[in-house]
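Ticket reopened. Same input as before:
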Amino acid sequence: MAADFRRGRLTPLGWAALVIGAALMLAPLTWAVLLSLKDNAALVGHSEAALHGPYTLDNYVAIFGNSLTTRWLLNSTIVALGQTAGVLILASLAGYGFARLDFPFRRTLFVIVLIGLAVPSQAVILPQHELFAWLHLHNSYPGLILPGLIAPFGVFFMTTYMRGIPRELDEAAMLDGASRWTTFWKVILPLTVPAQSTLAVFTFLGAWNDYWWPLISATRSDMYTLTVGLAAAQMNYAQTSGLGYLMAQAVFASIPIFIVYIIFQKQIVRAMAGTAV
Amino acid sequence: MTSARDWRGLLFVAPFLLLYSVILIFPLLRGVWLSFNQVDLFGDGHFVGLGNYARLLNDPIFGTSLINTFEVTLMIVPALTIIALGLAMALNRGSRNAAIFRGIFFSSAVLSVTIVTLIWRFVLAPDAGLLGELWKAFGWQPLPFLSDENLVLPALAITTIWWSVGFPMLLFLAGLQQIPGDMYEAAALDNASRWTTFSRITLPSLRRTVVLVVMLQTAAQLQLFGQSQLLTAGGPSGASRTAVLFLFETAFGRWELGYASAAAELLFLIILAVTITQYWATGRATAAQGGR
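Engineering reply: fixed in the latest deploy. New output:
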């Protein structure tokens, strides 16, 4: 790779800074894992006990005995998958419409979608809360999923991607007698798989880690997602089962997302390359 | 030959636009309306014009929360940008070691705010935290990061930098990949120093990425919420209450919906103004330089 040549070799000082930086990144994570492997009683007043054995998996066993944590895992999975599927479907349809079809007010509508990019979630959270209360959707899966489907970025992203696909493909298909829908479904959609996977990873990450909306919408502990459940556990820490168990919950909750990250690393890096250019 | 200018095109965009109107556009307008009304949990409230805004401007708690928000944003954004750029330049190489380091520095970015604060609570807490234990090992008194008014915002800033460094680093790495190698070859032929190469080639070529990172991060940190709510609940005595935490407490703690809406609108305007100013200022700087 040309990169080595470009930047010259990293000086020993540079390497030292990198190693120290990496240690600062890893130390909190390691500390959390060590704490999670300790008996709760051993940590009371002596968290430094985490630095040496004996270690135990009891806290992790206890998580599987606690129906709530596994329920939160299930909720997070349903919400994140639901939002990902929904965003892909809505953004692909709208992207095709905006990229390929001409209909009244097309430009105006597209600009209205772009305005959504600038709206921070805190600016609409109150009326959204009110709306979902009217619809009796709080503490339900549709209630948790629906606000996440409003992804103007997804529409913008799919529109841009589909504009890059040569129009001749559509025209050839239509000459063969294919309908608009068939052209979209059989010709264009298969070509957008790279864009779909990128959008899917980011939607999933965002949905899985969202704290703001489920905090407000899910008030019953059996409808919490993992983020809200862990927040509640953190707030009640003094009354609950202890530091080791709390940290085991944190580690347990981060495993699925680390797995997703490792599998989809390439999509994340490629998406960044697209954004930076 | 394909004259598709008809209503059928609308069918493709309708599902999104329908949800978008109901869940985003309607609440956006409704929020503006609410901000002109005094609304609480019971009843529809009544119109108070700019009353909520006037009250906000005279509310010392809101004022402090805004100042805290600006302070923590100023602590985070420049540091984060410089660290991310440094990491990207150091790790922009093809070796296996560089890939491992990239993975380490990105790893925290995939975690949720609740996991991050859960971990950092027990890094920062003086009695059970990693730093406390470290300080004790050196025979020092542990610092009360989360209960000292002067330490709490830097503590939130450090937590946030640890959490957020990954994405800007990836953006800078992507930007570095775009710089043509022959520019560096030419510089090497001229025996340009590392600093000259950086300031004349790397930094100007990355200008767009720097602007992007600073704008995205500023907008994100002006909305800092979870770290403050979860680590300190805004304390001690409001020293770490951010604007969004103020909004959250006003709305979902005291149910003063009109007043909270006014705070939300004001914050929205501030974020827009800051973003537009940054964009405008970089545009002018570019014009002055006669740059690309």
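Residues 187 and 197 of chain B are 7 Å apart (CA to CA). Chain B has a mean pLDDT of 89. Please confirm and we'll close it.
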